[in-house]
Structure formats: structure tokens, C-alpha cells
Amino acid sequence: MCGILEVDDTKRPKRPKPYVRITRPTEEDVNPLWQWGEENRELWSDKKSKWYPKDTLTDWIKNPRNDILLVAKNGMKKPIGMCMTYAMRGWGYCTGLFVDTGYRRKGIATQLLKETIRQLKKQHISHFTFNVDPSNRKGLRLYKKLGFQTGYSSICVYKTLDS
Q1: How far apart, in whole angstroms, are the C-alpha atoms of residue 100 and residue 43?
Q2: Contacts by 150-156, CB closer than 8 A, 24 or more apart
Q3: Alpha-carbon distance 123 to 112, whole Å?
Q4: Which residues have CB under 8 Å from 38's CB, separation 6+?
Q5: Which CATH architecture has domain 21-145?
Q6: Which parts of the chain sit beneath pLDDT 70?
């Protein structure tokens, strides 16, 4: 008996999701996290100061207080994503959600956000917010899928404080 197997070329096979562990960052993670901040404009508040200085990031990781600091690590224990969130008086503010380029579109940002939300709820925090570049359409789709709503548009203003 002979049969014909039809293949639908329009559907790409799903790639297996990489093994990912969501955990708190350690001092060993500072360099890759800081490097992401140096190289990726979407994490910056302005061109001059970019993201957090390395010593500030190190101190935050060592002393997070109630803040939710998470990294996604692959099977080799290498950081492949992060979600850095301040827990402040009833609301959480994410200052850095990032997934390394080679690991995007694999559900890692979703895992980071869901774990952040779980931990915020444990602290009885009822609101979670962050800024998104309006041109980041993939990110906006993800956030809406996870139940986030679009709030006010704003412009970041800053002032460098001299010593």
C-alpha cells in the first residue's frame, strides 16, 4: 500500500524552547548585565548616562531590599535575559527587561515577567509598570498578550546632579 504525505511548507516547525532557569542575579552576573546596558539603547534613559554604572548595579544586586531582580539562565548557567524591577509603595516599576538576541521569541521575556508578577503579588503590590519604546511592536504585542494596558505617553526628562 502506498500513501502520499503532504507537507505544509507555510508552517515552520516549532523550535524547542531552551532550558531556562529564572533566578536572582549574583555578583558573577554583573558583567553581562552591565554589558547589555552599555550596548542596548532601549535600556537607556539618555545617551550620556546610558544604563546603570557597574558599581551601582553590583550594589543593587548585593542589596536588593524588596526589589525584584531576576535573570534567566540557560543550561550553561549563562545569563540570557533579565528583568530588574523596583518594588515601591504598592507598585512595581521595571527599569530593565531584556533578552539576549539569540534567545528572543522563545518565551523567556514571558517567563521573566510572569515570575516578576508572582513575586510582586507576594509583596501585595497591585500595580506593575514600565516604559516601552513605541516602535517596539513585538514587545507591545507581548505586553498586551500578558494583560498590560497602554497608559500615558511621556517624555523622559533628567538632570545630572553634580557632587
Answers
A1: 13
A2: 156/45, 156/46, 156/131
A3: 17
A4: 50, 51
A5: 3-Layer(aba) Sandwich (3.40)
A6: 1-18, 163
